[in-house]
Amino acid sequence: MNGSLDGFLSRLSAAQAVGEAWEEAVSFLKSLGFDLVEYGYGGVGSTGTAAEVATLSNFPAAYQKRYRQEHYYRHDPVVRYCVGNLPPLRVGRDSLGLWPDRGQGLTTIQRRIINEAADCGMAVGVVIPLRSPGRYPLAGMSLSNAMRPAEFGRFLAEWGQLAQLAALYAHTRLQMLLQKPEHAASGVVLSARERECLLWVSRGLSSRETALRIGLSAKTVDFHIANAMGKLEVATRSHAVARAIVFGLLKP
């Protein structure tokens, strides 16, 4: 086994919080040459598709915020691939020619998601679908950089297997920590306003209705809820409420 992988596994095993494990995973994968790393995980809806997706990512903060606010995970073709497939897939704007339909079936919003990711540096990449028991059975990790497709193909031939092993190990450790609320909640602090707004969300109120209850504008309520979602690393309001309750940050 590669010595650097041994060291990575030791540090990963020693990580006692989600953030620590994620930093170790990103550091190791970047050392291989993957500049951008994103890990998505979620539950399963009644139709068998991903009901909600939360992400850990080293993409620029502005892109991550937009991804959450626009609910891109509902349309992201990479997410859809991970839900229904297990083999790794080349992804990124410059890799569309390798897809079975060469990307011809992409919708307008899917092309926007791919183009915005490419603008962040995800020109080419690979996504590794992942599975696990528990609350978040569906997951995937994308590894990418700004190489040209042919160069990335050679790079992947050399480092792809090691990267896939690292992704699998990171996924296992992250899921162990994510399913221990006391560890997952480490470092998460919600303001009084964020908790108050989430409380009314848990009771089925809209932003406008919440605003009337607590004397704020609907825009300010949305601001507090978005902040809470970011801290809890979730993509939807309902997921934010669920995680806040599990972490003991909210009493419905």
Question: Summary?
Answer:
With 252 residues, this protein is α+β, with helices and mostly antiparallel strands. The chain has helices spanning 3-14, 18-32, 61-69, 77-84, 108-119, 149-178, 181-184, 192-202, 207-214, 218-232, 237-246, and strands spanning 36-44, 50-57, 89-91, 124-131, 138-145.
Itemize the secondary structure elements and their pairings:
Layout: H1 3-14, H2 18-32, E1 36-44, E2 50-57, H3 61-69, H4 77-84, E3 89-91, H5 108-119, E4 124-131, E5 138-145, H6 149-178, H7 181-184, H8 192-202, H9 207-214, H10 218-232, H11 237-246
Antiparallel strand pairs: 1-2, 1-5, 3-4, 4-5
How would you describe this protein?
This protein is α+β, with helices and mostly antiparallel strands. The protein folds into 2 domains: 179 residues, Transcription factor LuxR-like, autoinducer-binding domain (Beta-Lactamase, 2-Layer Sandwich); 59 residues, Winged helix-like DNA-binding domain superfamily/Winged helix DNA-binding domain (Arc Repressor Mutant, subunit A, Orthogonal Bundle), CATH 1.10.10. 53% of the residues lie in helices and 14% in strands. The protein has 11 helices and 5 strands, in the order H-H-E-E-H-H-E-H-E-E-H-H-H-H-H-H. It has a 5-stranded antiparallel beta sheet with strand order 2-1-5-4-3, sandwiched between helices. Strand 4 and strand 5 form a beta hairpin. It is globular. The termini are far apart.
Key phrases:
252 residues, Arc Repressor Mutant, subunit A, 5 strands, 11 helices, alpha+beta, Beta-Lactamase
